[in-house]
Design goal:
Number of strands: 2
Shape: globular
Structural class: mainly alpha
Strand order of the largest sheet: 1-2
Helix content: 40-55%
CATH topology of one domain: Arc Repressor Mutant, subunit A
């Protein structure tokens, strides 16, 4: 599983959310966003991801847009590249 991590400078106030994976400076990827990023990296289309996760295509589109915003990227290929670099420099799924 592709997991995006960076070193946290300070923890936010309030209870910790175990479903949040640290990411880029704009925020953290949720567990669902990380799961969707894994599938994007695997070459799945939004429709195929929606079918696989039993979601609407619109929900998958929203998650991918959130991923782009949080990682500071503009597209799928760039999101995968940034995700892999933050996951320790891996060049592809195992």
């Amino acid at each position: 599983m592709l997991t995006c991590t960076t070193r946290a400078v300070s923890a936010p106030a309030g209870p910790a959310d175990p479903a949040v994976v640290p990411a880029g400076p704009a925020g953290a990827l949720t567990a669902r966003e990380s799961e969707i990023l894994d599938l994007v990296a695997g070459g799945f289309t939004n429709a195929a991801i929606a079918d696989r996760l039993v979601l609407s295509v619109r929900t998958v589109e929203r998650h991918t847009l959130n991923i782009y915003t949080k990682l500071g990227v503009r597209g799928r290929a760039e999101a995968v590249a940034v995700g892999y670099s933050q996951a320790g420099g891996s060049t592809g799924p195992a």
